[in-house]
Amino acid sequence: MLREDVKNTLIKVVGAERYLDRIEELACYGYDSYLEESLPEAVIFPLSTEEVAAILPIAGKHKIPVTARGAGTSVCGAPIPIQKGIVLCFSKMNRVLELNTQDRYAVVEPGVVNGDLQKNLTPLGFFYPPDPGSINISTIGGNVALNAGGPRCLKYGVTMDYVLGMEVVLPSGKVVNLGSKNIKDVTGYKLSALFCGSEGTLGIITKIILRVVPLPETARTIMVSFGNLDNSAQAVSDIIGSGILPVAMELMDKVTISEIEDTLKLGLDTEAEGTLLIEVDGMAETCEREMARIKEKVKEHGAVSLTEAATADDRENLWKARRFAYPVFAKIGPDIITEDVTVPVSQVPSMVRKIREILNKYKVMAGILAHAGDGNMHPLIPVDRSNPEEMAKVHRAIGEIFQAAIPLEGTLSGEHGIGLAKSEYLPLVMDENTREFMTVIKRAVDPDNILNPGKFV
Amino acid sequence: MLREDVKNTLIKVVGAERYLDRIEELACYGYDSYLEESLPEAVIFPLSTEEVAAILPIAGKHKIPVTARGAGTSVCGAPIPIQKGIVLCFSKMNRVLELNTQDRYAVVEPGVVNGDLQKNLTPLGFFYPPDPGSINISTIGGNVALNAGGPRCLKYGVTMDYVLGMEVVLPSGKVVNLGSKNIKDVTGYKLSALFCGSEGTLGIITKIILRVVPLPETARTIMVSFGNLDNSAQAVSDIIGSGILPVAMELMDKVTISEIEDTLKLGLDTEAEGTLLIEVDGMAETCEREMARIKEKVKEHGAVSLTEAATADDRENLWKARRFAYPVFAKIGPDIITEDVTVPVSQVPSMVRKIREILNKYKVMAGILAHAGDGNMHPLIPVDRSNPEEMAKVHRAIGEIFQAAIPLEGTLSGEHGIGLAKSEYLPLVMDENTREFMTVIKRAVDPDNILNPGKFV
Fold this sequence. Notes:
- 2 copies of one chain form a homodimer.
- Chain A has helices at 4-14, 23-26, 49-61, 114-121, 140-146, 153-156, 191-195, 229-241, 254-264, 284-300, 312-332, 348-361, 388-405, 426-429, 432-445, and strands spanning 19-20, 42-44, 66-69, 86-89, 96-100, 105-108, 126-127, 163-169, 175-179, 204-211, 213-214, 218-226, 248-253, 274-282, 303-308, 335-338, 341-342, 367-371, 376-383.
- The first copy, chain A, is an alpha+beta fold.
- In chain A, β18 (367-371) and β19 form a beta hairpin.
- Chains A and B meet through β9, α7, α8, α10 and α15 of A and β9, α7, α8, α10 and α16 of B.
């Protein structure tokens, strides 16, 4: 609980109905989709930039931590208020302020759900490419703060590639406007990029200008099975190396496919050691030719069966397996760790082998799921966090997976972020000077360390 | 001239042959393609990161300004050492360190010429998309420091979109490694983005990891004339608004075409008030269909003639007019100002009208050249800098052009940067808080203000 006088000052800004501090209310805002929990002392729902600009100096004056929150779908613990204080929850600041397809941008408040933005854009013939697994729940503010990815980022790029500008409230309460609605703009430092992936540690994003793009004319989707996991990974590496750029190229191993089939009964090939879901999009003729080349490639790599979507429903069904991987493994649980190791695509076969070896060595049951086309792998590890022995074993396995990625020039996270999950591993991929440089930036922008303290910086 | 003891310390680092300080030598390093000049006190040609890391603390200790320089093709004065000191010229640190088309990246030293990188990539079936006008002279280090654009950035994006990572020497001499070879990487702040467009004010870039992409299968190019400038601008806005994304869509007005034709005798339509050069690329069928739609659109907007390139030579010829615009106007000179105002594409017709009105009002002779598809306009203004009256008049006209861009939500620079040319106009597009925020970052990273001082921050 915050001090009564501080509470009253904050209530003066937002009103009592948007200030929560009863324990049963706070309980909903102390966790995300990672394993830890830490209750805040208060949850505030801002409705405007002005409110945020009024709140931060109050927090600063009393050295109260402030952690921004979207929908809490982060899997790395980024929005967990580990040093308590205030959670600023943006779920009510969720207006789409402007859609301009002529100039190809959208202006949104941070609480807009990614999927809701898509629903606004579809009738206009446009879309916003980044599609994290949480697309129907997670907010644009959270997507930007974590620099979210997703399957189709293989072709289209990640969140940062679509951020043209933003309005940010700095810890001082000062409001800055970074970037503009212009696709090309080189007036001064690219400071909006600094906030992409900053995990709420530098400022509070209150408005975002996003680039949007026309919907492709059509798409084609296939699912391919391989008798050997290595072959499926080699096919991915070869397709990318040959110059084709599918929208998505998702790899699932036998464990993943078996668990999904057990739950969903989709008729998947549970004998396959490796399964690829591959999609291309664009003009019909382009899709035709690209898909023909992809089919040649997967055959060269020993594909044993191939299912092609003939209709939109078929396509939806093929994607269903991939989309349900996370909930299926979460259900095995009781808890789940979704890892996020990334390597250059030529190293995907080696890394997949390594991950499987390490999981076997530690007798950790896990599925391997990957946005394989960009080398981004997600081992899905059901765990019981109340079992310290199991947790210690999984922890060692994960550490070893990261260690294995380093000689392959890989990195700790392709799209999930650092949060609480990976701070300890940061030195594996970032030398001391570079970590210190992050701290220099953090101190300059947030000298009192009130924004999301206790995280990676 | 630097103090003798400082000079000797610096020569100990790089040797006497890579340290210049005779006036006739310095004269070559005090200007770029903007109008001002300021001689440095010494020019040093580093060959390695270690040398740069040794030089910066020496400069810091003696508070000597350090300005990085590539090929000096900047048109905004960014590499002009306005407060003298040391110019670090990267022309000798120009090795392509790694080309990996399988994983789609290149690692280069900052002095690699953009065009030389292209020559290395072409035989491998790849290219690096950003193509500033200076492509055959300018260096990747300079391109990154200025976040350079170019005609094909309409489809492919600007320099920053291709920077995966970099090695930077901070003013302290500490070396930091930002980003990685992984296409997706969200481990910590996106600090490499901070250096894109920072114009040498934050650190010295000593190595760059660039994303490279497969060459398109084919391209198709047309040149279209309009009897009315407004119609040509409307056609651009309409093509983009309809969802087509050409590689390039270049607009030239009558003054530009006439001057080019006078010099080059290419058989251009000098009666046309507006001329568009439009190119699409990709698979043959896609190009065919996109070009068919583009032709419909330009006809709807009253195109009076259309020339289509049938061969690679034809295509080269169509581009020749566009490429020679700058040298043709520079020759009219004796000097030239290349402006760089940008607006959202729907505002291109209004902005083109405004620019022409303002040029007429001040009786300034200038061509209008534009990467019109992304709203990026380059008035080419031949001037005589020794004529103060003329310069004052041109200066007023330019100020008015920027003023005109603001209500259209435009900005000062799409791809040329701020440098010396535009600092005074920065408040037009950036509020005080945001400018102050740039200063906060600058002070944190370069507390002694030794890197390229006297510029926009």
